[in-house]
Amino acid sequence: MIDLSLLTDGGVGWLDASGPSSHLILSTRIRLARNLAGRVYQGRNSESEREDILLTVEAAARDTVLLRRAIKFRLDRLDRSDRQLLHERHLVSKELAGLDSDGRVRSGASLLVQDRLGVMLNEEDHLRLQGLHSGFALDAAYAEVDRLDAELGQRLAFAFHSEFGYLTSCPTNVGTGLRASVLIHLPGLVLTKEISKVLQGLAQVGLTFRGLYGEGSEVVGNFFQLSNQTTLGSSEYELLDHLGKMVRQVMDYEEQARQVLLRDAPAIIEDKVWRAYGLLRYARALSFEEAMNLLSGVRLGVGVNLIPDVGMYTLNKLLVYTQPAHLAVAEGVAPADPDLPVRRAQFVRKVLESEVGRRG
Amino acid sequence: MSCEQCREREAVIHLTQIVNEQVTTLHLCERCAAEKGVESPGAAPKTPLGTFLAAMGEELPEAPAPRTGDSCPRCGGSLQDFRESGRLGCSECYRSFEVPLRDLLRRLHGSTHHMGERYTEAGGSSPPSAPNPAIELREQLRVAVETENFELAAELRDRLRVME
After folding, report:
1. Which distant-in-sequence residues (6+ apart) come within 8 Å of A245 by Cβ?
2. What Cα–Cα distance (Å) separates residue B55 from each residue in A89, A360, B147?
3. What pTM, to 2 d.p., does this model score?
4. Phi/psi class of residue B37: alpha, beta or left (left: φ > 0; alpha: ψ in -120 to 50)?
5. Cα–Cα nearest to A159, from B142, B28, B157, B89
6. Helices A288-303/A312-321 angle, 10° precision
7. CB A153 to CB B125 under 8 A?
8. So what's the pLDDT on residue B62?
9. How far is CA A203 from the centre of its chain?
10. Angle A331-A337-A343 (CA atoms, 0-180°, nearest 5)?
């Protein structure tokens, strides 16, 4: 079993709800796709080439300030439950963790991580630089990843084309290689049935949405990951500025939707959020999906000041620690253990009880 | 997992919908999905680019042939490989298949010009140089002519004249 406590903040500093607008936005993520010049991409390279990429990049990273003390995880040498744990912490993609339907981990698949910064190695591209911040923090998150990009770029030769920019395995990432995303909670828009309209509107202005775990994942607990669709033809700052403006607009829509709900259907909303709280507080078995949806209800209740005494940080922690691999590690069982729903309910009860006291 | 509709065949399509305030996911087999009007991924390669590439598949052979025939001299990957996987084999592929890729980039991103940080090996990345509006206008003009949008082309030509 890997020891995530080795990471300074357990790799979950982003969930401390300290960042701007964290009642709506859980986290901001920036990733830059980079490849090494003169080397074949992951889809067509060999095991020894991937090993060499890992050695080369790690040596460069140890020479930087930002990744000097990085912890290395070799995904290709970890159990499935450990890989799932890293994925649930949003530190590695599903693909790198080998959790896709074919369930295979590529040799050389690795992660270097230090504080809020990390590099996935031998993912779809040779390097995927990433930074994860709490709340709505596009500029701060980008500034940090950009510094890492400069540090690594001085020590490695990146594949760069004078017209197309940074070259990537998939042409959808070429140019800046930048994907910026915010994980936003939109229960008001889902309840008022405005969400489809908003998502369609975002598509028209070049943005896209995904589920809780990024590409290919489902929407759970009314969490949406909003990100830029295009990576070429605009500068990094233009891409971030555009996404930022649109996210602020979505936040306004969400706040308006919540006001509409409170004005037009206060009794229904109050019942809904307290019902969610009651179930979390007293249920004896909870599936992951059910827990996510109930947490969404309570989060809404806290956001509109209907439910006192529950902190966003606690809700964020529950969001992470009730996931199958996290819960299984904490309980010392396998992620597929049939008892997990019972243990999840126990865990949630315990956390809420210590938060609001026995009479809450 | 079996299909939620017929409960017989294997579910291969997972459709996320928002119905009655709830985000739900339907797990369907190909046939039931088709009956519901959901396009089967079986017809296209299973990549996000799949539909896109399949749609432009017919046009690719008409583009001028890549320099070294069918495959990239560096990695051996072909355009066919790219269509199937949605992934290129190496950086050299961008040169080997420049013409069709340029077209694809324009459709995906609306541009082929990187406007972000410039990379120099010794100095890492540097801030973008001031964008050259004339280059962008010329590019837009070329696209307008190609797509026979002559009204726009005339406007762009006039703007270029003023600039130059």
Report:
1. none
2. 37, 58, 17
3. 0.80
4. left
5. B89
6. 170
7. yes
8. 42
9. 20
10. 45
pLDDT at position B7, please?
74
**8-state DSSP, A29:** E
The closest alpha carbon to B105, from A204, A175, A43, belongs to A175
Q: Is there a contact between B119 and A231 if contact means CB atoms under 8 Å apart?
A: no
The answer to whether the beta carbons of residues A138 and A246 sit under 8 Å apart is no
Question: What residues in A contact B118, CB-CB < 8 Å?
Answer: 160
Judged against a pLDDT cut of 80, whether residue B64 lies above it is answered with no
The pLDDT of residue B42: 39
Closest Cα partner for A289 from A313, A261, A324? A324
Residue of A nearest to B16 (CA): A218
The residue ranking higher by pLDDT, B63 or A283, is A283
Q: Give the residue from A40, A125, A207 with the most B CB atoms within 10 Å of its CB, the best one to mutate.
A: A40
pLDDT at A108 over 50: yes
Is residue A102's pLDDT more than 50? yes
Query: Average pLDDT over chain A, rounded to whole?
Result: 92
Q: Which residue type, as a one-letter code, is found at position A22?
A: S
pLDDT band of residue B51 (cuts 50, 70, 90) is: low
Beta-carbon contacts of residue A260 (< 8 Å; ≥ 6 apart)? A188, A192
Out of B16, B114, B125, closest to residue A150 by CB: B125
Q: Which residues are within 8 A (CB) of B162 and not within 5 positions of it... i.e. 6 or more apart?
A: none
- pLDDT given for residue B34 in this prediction: 66
CA distance A354 to chain B (A): 30
Contact of B55 with chain A, judged by CB distance below 8 Å, is answered with: no
Residue B131 has pLDDT above 60, yes or no: no
Query: CA A34, A163, A244, A171 torsion: positive or negative?
Result: negative
Q: Quick one: which of A76, A98, A101 has its CA closest to A87?
A: A98
- Inform me whether the pLDDT recorded for B128 exceeds 70: no
